[in-house]
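JOB MANIFEST
job_type = single_chain_structure
chain_count = 1
residues = 214
[input]
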Amino acid sequence: MTTTTGEPATPKRSVGRPRTYDEVTERELIFKAAYRVLRDNRDKSFTIADILTAAGVSTRSFYRHFGSKDELLCAMYLRDGERASARLTERLAGAANPREALAFWIDELFSFHIGPRAERMSVMSSVLAIRAEGSEEVHQLARALLLAPLLDVVRAGNADGTFASDHPESDTDFAAAAVFHASGLAGPNLGQRPAAGAAAFVFDFCLRALGATR
């Protein structure tokens, strides 16, 4: 027969070492550490242990967020794509017309090689170079995120007569491919600084490809 004493139950203690950081902070520490490790080991192999040492977090902390090193690298790549797409959308919203918006879109992509973005661009190009598992899929997702604002520009240009694109989706993809290659975001020039005058040249190319009327 069970008896009660009337005393409050003692709460159970959690098993294991208490967490030092909340989930958001922990994840950000891992991201920042991974960028540093990628930068310092671009031409050499590196391990999860290298990232954990740089981040100052435990193995358990890492696997709370990512299933593998490749999964982390792909998450970094996609996050950068999402942030770049948000910047593009915000900047293009301030354009006076579709022609100016096209110029802004190209300028933003070329700016990936300027200032703090340059190092991150160089680091992230190595994610593709080392062929992390899933990198091609996230590359395509990130590319689609960057194309979406440009497609909106082309459609707006068609509507007001700035462009005369019979096939907005395919024409946008074609024009964007030229910009990605010229800016060093794809192809054999991946990660390299664009040639002088490349932005102006590719802008004229895109105008012709989109059937610019004025």
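[summary]
The CA atoms of residues 89 and 104 lie 10 Å apart.
Residues 20-67 form a domain with the Arc Repressor Mutant, subunit A fold (CATH 1.10.10).
exit_status = 0
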